[in-house]
Amino acid sequence: MEILKDYLAGASGELNAEMLTFVANIDMVAKKSPQIAKGIVRELIDQRSYLKLIASENYCSLATQSAMGNLLTDKYAEGFVGNRFYAGCDNVDEIERLANEEACHLFGCEHAYVQPHSGADANLVAFWAILRKRVQAPIMERLEKTNLLDLTREEWEEIRAALGNQKLLGMDLFCGGHLTHGYRHNVSGQMFDAHYYYVDKETRMLDYDNIRQRLHEVKPLIFLVGFSAYTRNIDYSLLRKYADEVGAVMLVDMAHFAGLVAGGAITGKYNPIPYADVVTSTTHKTLRGPRGGMVLCKAEYAEYMDKGCPHVIGGPLPHVMAAKAIAFKEAGTDEFKAYANNIVKNSQCLATALVEKGLNVQTGGTDNHIVLVSVENLGLTGRQAEDALRECGLTLNRNTMPFDTNGPWYTSGLRLGTAAVTTLGMCKPQMLEIADIMANVLKDIKPTLTKKGAKSKAKYTLSNTIKADAIERVRRILDDFVLYPEIDTKFFDKYFSNL
């Protein structure tokens, strides 16, 4: 395949640098595997063909993507800046140092650690850093030892037993928490004696008095705050006071709303940075960077956090750290601040419109990028609603609602997010249109009956008229808001049409 030559031969006038880079990359991939190259182009076409309303996804810049696709991927750099176990890490040191500095400047934190490969990794790094500082270090000091290898078998068993018998208090997964916050099917629920706090059954919001009560009942080492499906701002100043009452380390997982903090859409007592001992996050989602994680912390935790490699992760990914540095720099601009605030405006507009259409929006609205919709009152499961909306051009995910009787597979609700559509430039008119499309589809879905006459939790029927109307309306929206308009996918048709 000579894709690049054909592109250069057919180009007229000034070459589009972004298109040239994309074509060159696809050309290199296609020479090894045309099927993989087709899959990459097809993914771009698919993402242009559906409204992305998944709260945990976004579109990073082409500059951020380019920072990931280079020879930095070939370099091992175990350790941290200035302390590597491999030679030849001078350039990686500089890149990681810049990424750390950009993160500290962006969030106003005392220390940053940008090596984690994901948000789950970031939480593991944070957990073990806290355990080593608060549990292991005091025992080592009492034993008058500085090196774990100098411990006797009995001394080592004492430390292992202490590390494995600590309490964690986190938000219940089915009330909006995350798998890594102590869920029994996750390693976090198996390495800790995990306990949970819940939302109020009526308001579906956090009950601060109940959280305080739970803290005093459990007296955890780690008080974990944060969510993957909660729509209201959290008062971290108040929770800091409660954590101090029981001597708990306050860890905030801000993976979902990091971009809103960076862009100033979440401020004051709702910004966790000044109040938490440790803050973990992904670097994508609202932050609009590469897939990855990071940990921000008070200076007293820095030496423990920097030992994430080799304690939890192996070799860091220098190419992804480079992309993180680019994303952090982008997030410090006025353009990003406007973007972050528009995310919240869009989600609030979408939530209000859905309520007006008669849909059951949890907590009655939102303070962030997430909108939660229960479909139980429509006689549907989240699985049916997710699949039907995908058929109609809207990509989102089913989600458990608090105290959900349908369980985590079928669920009773949907989770929507506005970060990606806001990246494309959409605003109020598009949010109103999306809400109307959604309402029309959801109200038309009819669960099919099983052989025993019960409603199926997965199968459904949808009117062809409603479906066709929704697809056409989605197409019109996306025609006006094209993802990566610099790239012309039609150019690739002749190369991959026969694969």
Domain count, please report it: 3
Q: Main β-sheet, in a few words?
A: 7 strands, mixed
Overall mean confidence score, pLDDT: 96
User: Percentage of helical residues?
Assistant: 40-55%
CATH topology of the largest domain: Aspartate Aminotransferase, domain 2
Total number of helices: 21
| Cα-to-Cα separation, first versus last residue | 13 Å
Overall outline: globular
Number of strands: 17
Strand content: 5-15%
Unreliable runs, pLDDT <50, ≥5 residues? none
Q: What Rg do the Cα atoms give?
A: 24 Å
Level-2 CATH architecture of the largest domain: 3-Layer(aba) Sandwich
Structural class of the helices, strands and pairings?
A: alpha/beta
- CATH homolog superfamily of the largest domain: Type I PLP-dependent aspartate aminotransferase-like (Major domain)
Determine and state the CATH class of the largest domain: Alpha Beta
Q: Strand order within the widest sheet? A: 4-10-9-8-7-5-6
Describe the structure.
With 499 residues, this protein is of the alpha/beta class. The protein folds into three domains: 1-39, no CATH class; 71-331, Aspartate Aminotransferase, domain 2 (3-Layer(aba) Sandwich), CATH 3.40.640.10; 335-480, Aspartate Aminotransferase, domain 1, CATH 3.90.1150.10. Helix content is 47%, strand content 13%. It has a seven-stranded mixed sheet, sandwiched between helices. It has a four-stranded antiparallel sheet with strand order 11-12-15-14. Strands 1-13 form a two-stranded parallel ribbon. The radius of gyration is 24 Å and the shape is globular. It starts with a helix and ends with a helix. The mean pLDDT is 96.
